[in-house]
Amino acid sequence: MANAGSSGPVGRAAYDEAFPRVSDALTLYLWRRPALLLTGWAVKARVPTLALTLFEALLALLVFALFWRGHYWPGLLLALAVMVASVAGLVLARLTHAPQRANRSRIALEIVHPILWWWGWEHGLGDYGRAFEPVYATMVLWVVVGGTVAMRVIEGLALHRFNGMQIHAWRPVDTRFRLVSASRNTNLVLLAGGLSFDRPDSGLVLVAWWTLISLIIHAVRFAQLTELQARRQKIASWLDR
């Protein structure tokens, strides 16, 4: 097991096998190497998956606190560490066959902390000097949070209904769209883009629109899969062919 997370030939092969095949662009193209180093250290140090999850949770809470106070750039920098820890936690759980309690804790964290981040970002606009009107703030936040939750529900239903197949792995177009669809990492890129123009408020509006668009696409693909299943047609991921 000690070699599973190492950078040697056997360890790298195990890491690549455990690494998600479908994810956002940052995870697939930027965080693979840093997460490999963190995973290798965790395996060698015999760090339990739950401990790494708790470390990620602590970092995520610090990001939330920074966003809440309008300290956006420090929060975004710390969010990069959360991204790497998140990937490492997933891979470590697969390599070490983590217990169900640890897996459930990790999944719950991945669902909850981005929602807290978007709430913290919206609240921090007041300290930054770009506050929304109260009604508009509620509308934007509900679109972002509600859309995020709805997409997670659709993804969970797809896993349950279609023999464990991710909705993003059905066709190549779904896998390509997953690279940029609304998610924690993609949303942070949009927020950073708005902040680079000194408009963190516009960044959050962009996140709301992209979340809504992504939700519509998720819903359409889920409806198409459901229709094929009702016709008793075979449903399989293109990655398994």
Question: How would you portray this structure in words?
Answer:
This protein has a single domain, classed as Up-down Bundle (Four Helix Bundle (Hemerythrin (Met), subunit A)), CATH 1.20.120. Helices cover 75% and strands 0% of the residues. The protein contains 10 helices and no strands. Helix 4 packs antiparallel against helix 5 and helix 9 runs antiparallel to helix 10 (200-230). The protein is globular, with a radius of gyration of 19 Å.
Looking at CATH, the homologous superfamily is CDP-alcohol phosphotransferase transmembrane (TM) domain
Low-confidence stretches: 1-7
Give the terminus-to-terminus CA distance.
30 Å
Total number of helices: 10
Q: How can the largest sheet be summarized?
A: none
Number of domains: 1
The proportion of strand residues reads: under 5%
Structure class: mainly alpha
The best one-word shape is: globular
Topology:
Elements (H helix, E strand, L loop, with lengths): L8 H10 L6 H5 L2 H13 L4 H20 L3 H24 L4 H29 L5 H28 L10 H7 L5 H13 L3 H31 L11
Helix pairs in contact: 3-5, 4-5, 4-6, 5-6, 5-9, 6-7, 7-10, 9-10
Main attributes?
241 residues; mainly alpha; Four Helix Bundle (Hemerythrin (Met), subunit A); globular; disordered N terminus
